Amino acid sequence: MRHQKLSPGLLLAFEDYQREGQEALIPQVRMLSIVPPKNNLKPIRSIVFIYCDENADLSHLSQHGIEVNQNRGHVRTAFLPVQSLDALSDDPAIERIKPSRKLKLHMDVAKSTVHIPEFRKKNSNLTGKGVIIGIIDSGIDPKHPAFKGRILRIWDQTLSGSGVIEGKYGAELTGSLLTVSQDTNGHGTHVAGIAAGMDATYGGVAPEAELLIVKSDLDEGHIADAVRYIFRVARELGRPAVVNMSLGGHFDPHDGSDSLSKVIDSETGPGRIVCCAAGNEGNDNIHAQAIVPPGKTHTMRFNVPLNQASIATLNSWYSSAGQLEVSLRSPNGFVTPFQPVIADGNYIKEYTLQDSQVQVATPKRDPGNGDYNVLVQIRGKGKGNYTPPVQGGIWQLRFKNTSAKDVRLDVWTLDGSSLFTGQSIADSVKIGSPGCASSAITVAAYTTKEKYTDIDNKLEEMGFSLNTISDFSSEGPLRNDAKKPDVAAPGAMIVSTLSSNANSDRSMIINSKFMALAGTSMAAPFISGLVALLLQRNPKLDPVAIKELLRKNSSIPKKPPGTFDSKWGYGLIDAQNL
Asked: Could you tell me which residue ranges the Peptidase S8/S53 domain spans (predicted)?
């Protein structure tokens, strides 16, 4: 096996599988895109990103049971039987293999706050007509009257079917078959309504735009396929399109060099725009940052809740200015030795402590960005087939600088398994993929409403500060200091379409058709709808031109025009003079 072709998360999963079989992958299903077999005769599979030459012919990989979803492209997605990882890594046509990860789903007052009605009136009543809005989310309620006659297709990735050109999985639905797909979560229906719902009171920003819906299984690779799908269908129909993704994660290097961001950057262009939510971790201590001086050791402390986490994972990245060695100390005082970068062969070492099993991955510089990635995985230590939860308490992650230069270090906790505590906590760099994509418009949330009356005529007060950036909105910049988010838009509490198939909290429901939600998930489709209006006016606008328009028409209160802030981006959008 060519270990260095594999990114750390994938190699960790493969090591677990080799050592313990399929049972070892159960905790990984939540983070990696592991596809459990439907029966004992089928192999367990993982969804991966494959890096290769743009025009490489990979058809020969089918002999190993590897199903590649695209015939061309530098970054492709594939279904990979786990036992075929050896053969794939040894193939000379393959440059790099990265895992697909599981991402998370992150207008009555709002439209007037940012002057959407004035913008429409000034521009011959723009409505988004002739523009496609693609929603990659939990699906849509196709029977909701706010979308009547405007849903062109649904690619439901969770259904059994022959799939589409971009991937032979899921089912593409049109016409009367649209109702086969249901949004049992409700997130996607709400998002679609903000962008394009038609209603006299709670209508969306672009109420005559047509919709392409991808009900996603939230695998990162399948989200990449969905982006390709929407833009391909839009091209075939001769329409400009904007894709909305109100989802994200923190497995990536937070600099736009991850696989999904690369796909987005390669697919966008004139008339092809992507909008992403910044994330909702503004109040969460998921990020730690430090400058480690030469010859010094820096300690980051994180808390694992007692009896709650089956696995705890930390994703660390540091600059190529120097090299760090890493060690882990458990709450009971047991430690692993300092592990350096391992440039050849298997770069994962496993340590058995008296209270825990620890795996540390320290590969050589990542070819995508030239920096170093350290991945640490912690499990409980059990007997026989029983694996207890991770040891609860305060853990210490220690980094020793063995080089002659200062090294900047950033670490994220993953999947809510732990949170940082102490002086290393940094309320910054919390925007992960796909919001890191340089071509994407990344949207922060602004609070236009902090109370409303629910369906039971009860006043619901959320405790947000009115008319300012929402405290939950994730901060930038990116790890490479690129400026994100781009812009802020209304994100709390936004009233939009309610899915009839979702079991929604009654306190969030306004009436039988609408509900209120908060999040950057709500802010992103607001900008997607606005982009649809701009594309109706000029279908050739590209991401650079649209970002410039948004930047010039956004501002931070009491700050000079053009000021960037890691929480606000360039400020709240004002559509009046767009």
From this structure: 128-290, 425-571
CB-side exposure of 335: number of CA atoms within 13 Å? 12
pTM over 0.90: yes
- Which residues, 6+ apart, have CB-to-CB distance to 381 below 8 Å? 352, 353, 354, 355, 356, 357, 387, 388
Residue 402: per-residue pLDDT: 97
Q: Strands 132-137 and 210-215: what pairing? A: parallel
Express each pLDDT in 453-493 by its tens digit: 999 999 998 878 888 999 999 999 999 999 999 999 999 88
Asked if 521 is an active-site residue, the reply is yes
16, 91, 137, 225: which one is catalytic? 137
Predicted local distance difference test score (pLDDT) of residue 577: 85
Residue 187 designated active-site? yes
* Annotated catalytic residue, options 330, 418, 438, 521: 521
Q: Is the pLDDT of residue 214 over 70?
A: yes
Residue 295, Cβ density class (10 Å: 0-12 exposed, 13-18 middle, ≥19 buried): exposed
The 3-state secondary structure of 32-91, one letter per residue: ECEECCCCCCCCCEEEEEEEECCCCCCHHHHHHCCEECCCCCCEEEEEEEHHHHHHHHHC
Which residue of the set 106, 115, 144, 187 is catalytic?
Answer: 187
Chain segment 260-297, per-residue pLDDT in tens = 999 999 999 999 999 999 999 999 999 999 999 999 99
Report how far residue 442's alpha carbon sits from residue 458's, in angstroms, rounded to the nearest whole number: 34
The phi and psi torsions of 14 (rounded to 5 degrees) equal -65, -40
